[in-house]
Amino acid sequence: MGIFKRISRMVQADVHELLDKAEHPISMLNQYMRELDEQVNKAKDALAQQLYLEKRQEQLVAETAAVAAKRTRQAELAVAKGEDAMAKLALQEKLQAETRLNLFKEQLEAMKQQTVAIKEQIDTLLEKYSELSYKRLVLVSRAHAAKVQQQTQAAIASFNADSAVKGFNRVEDYVQKLEAQAAAGAYFVPAPVLNLDLQEAVERELAKLKEAK
User: Fold this and answer.
1) How much is the pLDDT for 191?
2) Which PANTHER family match (predicted)?
3) DSSP code string of 139-174
4) What is the pLDDT of residues 71-124, one digit of tens each?
5) Contact 57, 104 (CB under 8 A)
6) Can you state the angle between helices 2-12 and 84-158, rounded to 10 degrees?
7) Which of 98, 110, 123, 168 has the most C-beta neighbours closer than 10 Å?
8) How many C-beta atoms surround the C-beta of residue 180 within 10 A?
């Protein structure tokens, strides 16, 4: 049962204390989970071996019970034939088989109880393993979020707001100068020269329209 004692010590260990002592806590946490996973796999192998032995014991019980029943029939047949010597031999082997059968049954019952205990331990360990796996996922996510927040804060701290404002002010001054230059240029555009001939022609056409009306 050394495997289960080791796993129990691991799942009951103070994870926070281990992480406090680690240079890289997340790496330590990952290594911790890998070791726990290996131990759980060993526990599964131990259960498989236990179930195999239990099945072998059940087979042994069945075979021994069959031998006892067979010797009983042989003794009955020998008595019917008047062969007392053969009957005694068969009865002797029957009693021996029944003694072994009782022992095998006791061993089988003990094995079954042990199997139940192992399954209960594994169920508890798997539940704890699932809990720790989820907790690891949460901790890794929180660590990542905290790291991103630190990087964001560092970027904000390194940003020079005064320099940016001055830069925008320089651009604004430049745009204002361009606008002033454009306004000054428009002021010096000469007014259009009137075409007198065109104006007279317009007046004549207007007079014709009035006469026609």
Assistant:
1) 57
2) MEMBRANE-ASSOCIATED PROTEIN VIPP1, CHLOROPLASTIC, PHAGE SHOCK PROTEIN A
3) HHHHHHHHHHHHHHHHHHHH--HHHHHHHHHHHHHH
4) 999 999 999 999 999 999 999 999 999 999 999 999 999 999 999 999 998 888
5) yes
6) 20
7) 98
8) 10
